[in-house]
Amino acid sequence: MASLTVRQIDEALKKKLRLRAAKNGRSMEDEVRTLLREAADEAGHAILENFEPSTKRSAARGRNVEPANGIACVLLIIAGGIAAYKSLDLIRRLRERDIHVRVVLTKAAQEFVTPLSVGAIAGEQPFTDLFNPAHEFDVGHIRLARECDLVIVAPATADLMAKLAGGHASDLATTIALATDKRVLLAPAMNPRMWSHRATQRNFAQLQADGVSFVGPNEGEMAEAGEAGTGRMAEPLEIVAAIERLLAPSSERPLAGKTIVITSGPTHEPIDPVRYIANRSSGKQGHAIAAAAAAAGANVTLVSGPVNVPNPPGVRVVHVESARDMLAAVDRALPADIAIFAAAVADWRVDNAYKEKIKKSPGARTPSLSLTENPDILSTVAHRTKQRPQLVIGFAAETQNVLANARTKLAAKGCDWIVANDVSPSTGVMGGDRNTVMLVTRGGVENWPPQSKDGVAAKLVARIAEALRQ
Ligand SMILES: Cc1cc2nc3c(=O)[nH]c(=O)nc-3n(C[C@H](O)[C@H](O)[C@H](O)COP(=O)(O)O)c2cc1C
Questions:
Q1: How many beta carbons lie within 10 A of that of residue 335, not counting itself?
Q2: Same structural domain for residues 241 and 265?
């Protein structure tokens, strides 16, 4: 019966059937039986129950299946890092959201998680080999690269980032990443020294320039005892949020492909090891802009002074203390398409901060502080001739003559837009949840109505998207 069926179908369908059968490791006749059985199961045809022994049937069910139409499918590449264990949770979180997950494990990844546990959680067998006759008879790596909506690498090791930046195709993971026509999202995870190494930073910049999206790495404790810094893989739910943003229709991602660096919060300028000069900025506005820009599809690096607000999802956050640290972190984040300087950077710092805590002792002279000017981050970046972002936006926090001061700042700093707000204590803007701003551009002034800081962020992102379109 099966051979009759195969002979009587047209060539195109026969070819599809042949590919499908080989991919599932079945003969064409078995494939036809399986298809018929599945159709019969659906239609409730008990007549086909005895078609094959039941043990064979249940074995077939465990094999990889095509994602149904309309269901998002992501290809997750797990590389060989300690954080690979978190990728099991990532698979679970994606499946909870009805996202079909296909998994590729590098050779090194299999030292950290087994294909068995990955397969059990993903609900299908993971792929591990480039030279696998069962999958490669029809160039399976190309199909894996194309038959998904998004390629994710989590954890992305330093090694894999280097290979991807160099365009290698030396194993299944790198070959897929090179062959795909889909967007690629990387969640780096490595020791902080590996992350900050010039080679890794060079690869990171290259991959960003190639249009690769990133989530994390975050700051925090490393798996290695006593090690902390930037290099932790983003948490699974942060990666899920980044995936959902990338899977959203392009109309909801007007900043897709754009790289943005944003500063936020205050800076702390040390007086001695325990005291510092600060200001009342909470970071709420800058963090809200970072979240809105990431939600609009941008690749965002947020350089944040010391704040108590959580890191926005899907944003790479670099925590700094002083104005000089902030400028250095901004420089490392460049080149970028857009720079938004929302941080309240201290204008001055203590000239020679004390190395030890200043002691108060009876009869001793009250210490006096000599101040020196801090670098002006907005002006420095806006006046760059090389690596100047296409759009440089500054914030002007004023307590008087808001518009006049904002106009002066726009001209003096050489930026493109100024978002000006009145931060007099009576407005409650500093530390509050609402803001009333004016957008000052070379073309004129827009008075935006009072609204939440999230509202200001969303409107600013929409204005940026509009400006880039023009
Ligand atoms: C215990 C252990 C933990 C490791 N953790 C990491 C890591 O977190 N990040 C990283 O980039 N490399 C890490 N490595 C090094 C990678 O496993 C190594 O560079 C490997 O070649 C990566 O291969 P892949 O990128 O093809 O998966 C670790 C190695 C060992 C032995």
A1: 16
A2: no
